[in-house]
Design goal:
Blueprint (H helix, E strand, L loop, with lengths): L4 H27 L4 H27 L4 H18 L5 H23 L4 H10 L5 H15 L3 H26 L1 H5 L7 H22 L2
Length: 212
């Protein structure tokens, strides 16, 4: 028996997000990392993202869904998000990895709250931090300490990332109503208000952690 469209959509968008994160981190490590140590560290995080993609791909297959078909509806939106938020330098890449990816993963975590525990546990497993926060925060803070003027520039960049992420999220939800329904549990506007309050609180904590 095949899983419901909403569950397949959630695992599909998350699988493509993890695959995209792997590709982007690999590229950033090769082209933007200032030291070999930074390149190695980001590459290691990229490998973890790919492992998460494989877990999601395998679960989709177990549920009777074609992984490629499950991911396909989200390729355009996620590719557009990455194209519109391509970092110009190493610090921007780190802020995107921490803040931009973070708010997207918060969406998926909230959607999974209403699902079967086995699906929710899988989502929690693949969006676990895996050292991403510490890696980004330490380097961004060091960059700001070395050049305080960077704080303003990076704060504006983070604001843009969040705006673009929310815009893409709305487009995905409009196109995939089954996925959007996972974000509400019958409370309608109350749940949406709680969702945005949760996302905003998490975002503010990330900004504070980086010193922005």
């Amino acid at each position: 028996m095949k899983e419901s469209p909403g569950v397949v959509d959630l695992l599909g968008v998350l699988a493509y997000a993890e695959l995209s994160a792997y590709a982007r981190m690999t590229e950033d490590a090769a082209t933007l990392a200032p030291t070999l140590a930074d390149r190695a560290a980001l590459s290691e995080l990229a490998v973890t993202e790919y492992a998460h993609f494989r877990l999601l791909r395998d679960r989709l297959a177990e549920l009777g869904a074609d992984p490629d078909e499950a991911m396909a509806p989200f390729v355009g939106a996620l590719d557009a998000w990455h194209a519109q938020t391509r970092p110009a330098d190493w610090l921007q890449a780190l802020v995107k990895t921490y803040v931009g990816d973070g708010i997207a993963l918060d969406f998926y975590r909230e959607a999974a709250r209403h699902l079967d525990p086995s699906i929710a546990e899988l989502v929690d497993e693949v969006i676990v931090d895996e050292g991403r926060s510490q890696f980004a925060v330490e380097r961004v803070r060091a960059g700001i300490e070395a050049a305080p003027v960077e704080a303003g520039r990076l704060a504006l960049w983070a604001r843009r990332l969040v705006g673009e992420a929310l815009s893409q999220g709305q487009q995905v939800a409009s196109a995939r109503p089954e996925l959007a329904l996972l974000l509400v549990s019958g409370e309608g506007a109350t749940d949406i208000s709680r969702l945005f309050a949760t996302l905003t609180e998490a975002h503010n904590k990330r900004m504070a952690a980086m010193g922005l």
